[in-house]
Amino acid sequence: MRLILFGPPGVGKGTQAKLLSASMKTPHISTGDMLRESVTRGTELGKKAKAVMDAGQLVSDDIMIGIIREVLGSTKCRGGFILDGFPRTVPQAEALTTVLTDVHVKLDAVLNLEIDEAQVIERLSKRVTCRKCGRIYNLGIDHLSDPSKCPNCGGELFQRDDDKPETVRKRLRVYAESTAPVKEYYRKAGLLKDIDASGTVDRVNCDIRKALGLPK
């Protein structure tokens, strides 16, 4: 299947993407991972992205779309993909539609995970990030043996400033304003499936599988 996972910060996109990826044997493609991989491989687009990030600026849509085109058109995604973190604006959604048309691929669904603000703040207050490899964990879900060290690489785990309550509230306002039109874009295309993400991880996963017509 070819899916997009959509939802506000802290809704559990990464967790659900990992579960779906494992059960469906389909690669989970996050924008952060794509950028890091392109930079590590030293591709032309990766070099451009690195220069922009090193200057403390946001990677442009043109660069990001180019990287997504490379990844979605690769053998890695030939059997499907779960795209997480993109698109965030209507122009990005339109550009992604063009990319998918060019590589002769159709989306199966856009999963819109929804949750209220109070739960997002509670969840993100437990989220930590590895300084070394960039992986993200939730101390309330992942039950790490050592909450100060990354189980993947041993790097230091810390809470990002943008996961703190006041910043989260601002991020949610920006998200609501910028992404409401994107949801409407995919709703009009008949692809949007709304998922209540306020339950347990297993409950949400069960609802997603039901919405996709997959066995529980």
Poorly predicted regions: none
Strand runs, count: 8
CATH topology of the domain at 2-115 and 178-212: Rossmann fold
Write the CATH homologous superfamily of the domain at 2-115 and 178-212: P-loop containing nucleotide triphosphate hydrolases
Question: Helix share of residues?
Answer: 40-55%
Please describe the biggest sheet, giving its number of strands, its sense, and whether it closes into a barrel.
Answer: 5 strands, parallel
Major β-sheet strand ordering: 2-3-1-4-8
Mean pLDDT rating: 89
- Principal-axis shape equals globular
> In what range is the share of β-strand residues?
5-15%
C-alpha termini separation: 16 Å
Overview of the structural elements:
This protein is an alpha/beta fold and 216 residues long. It has a domain at 2-115 and 178-212: Rossmann fold (3-Layer(aba) Sandwich). It has helices at residues 13-24, 31-41, 44-54, 61-72, 90-102, 117-124, 165-188, 201-212, and strands at residues 2-6, 28-30, 81-84, 109-114, 127-130, 136-138, 157-158, 192-196. The chain has a five-stranded parallel β-sheet with strand order 2-3-1-4-8, with helices on both faces.
Task: Write out key terms for the chains shown.
48% helix; 5-stranded parallel beta sheet; 216 residues; Rossmann fold; alpha/beta; 3-stranded antiparallel beta sheet
What is the topology?
Blueprint: E1 2-6, H1 13-24, E2 28-30, H2 31-41, H3 44-54, H4 61-72, E3 81-84, H5 90-102, E4 109-114, H6 117-124, E5 127-130, E6 136-138, E7 157-158, H7 165-188, E8 192-196, H8 201-212
